[in-house]
Design goal:
Elements (H helix, E strand, L loop, with lengths): L1 H9 L7 H11 L2 H25 L16 H16 L3 H20 L5 H25 L1 H22 L4 H20 L3 H14 L1
């Protein structure tokens, strides 16, 4: 029973499960919030690969080769759910998001995928990234924030190409980041509709 619960909780940290949540929530409510959460998620998928190459903490022996710190699943989930937690005004939503994060962290440790340090490190990085994203957003606006996000992602990929290699999931994450930024562009003030309206006015003249 506990094993089944732990494996169920792990789904909330899987990168193929989170985008499905984004799509559903984006359709239902506050598109910009979930698009920004997806931007952070995609960026973290790129950045976490670099972190693992810098720290080089080996995985537990039974998991084979690779690096464990910080936990990629926890890092991605913490920045995604953590951003929604930061932006949410609902106590019920906040409680649910905290429960998801705690359950996921517990499951990763219980299933012997990571130790406590891997989990805490991922949460610490996520908290720092959310704070930095919020600072950029409030201080310089969405345009500068998007530019910093894309440029830093490109620099990280360049660095990975030198010290390691660029794995397929990096390109997928970069595509996800570009799509999420485009979604923000579309949703913010309905820019495409405004541009189209201006073009129609010009055509009439």
């Amino acid at each position: 029973m506990i094993d089944a619960l732990a494996h169920f909780c792990l789904k909330f940290g899987h990168v193929t499960f989170i985008p499905a949540i984004v799509v559903i929530l984006t359709v239902l409510y506050r598109r910009d919030t979930y698009a920004k959460a997806l931007c952070l998620l995609a960026w973290v998928m790129i950045f976490n690969t670099l972190l693992k190459q810098l720290f080089k903490v080996p995985l537990m022996p039974h998991l084979g080769t690779g690096y464990a710190f910080p936990s990629g699943h926890m890092h991605a989930a913490a920045v995604f759910y953590g951003y929604m937690l930061f932006r949410s005004r609902s106590k019920m939503a906040k409680s649910l998001l905290v429960l998801i994060l705690v359950s996921l962290g517990w499951s990763l440790i219980y299933c012997c995928f990571h130790d406590v340090l891997d989990i805490l490190g991922a949460v610490a990085f996520a908290a720092t990234e959310i704070s930095a994203y919020h600072f950029l957003e409030t201080k310089f606006g969405n345009g500068i924030t998007a530019a910093v996000s894309l440029i830093s992602a490109a620099l990280i990929i360049l660095c990975l190409s030198v010290i390691y290699r660029i794995e397929p999931h990096i390109w997928i994450a970069l595509c996800g980041l570009l799509c999420a930024e485009f979604a923000l562009f579309v949703s913010k003030g309905r820019r495409i509709e405004k541009i189209a309206e201006k073009l129609r006015i010009l055509q009439k003249h």
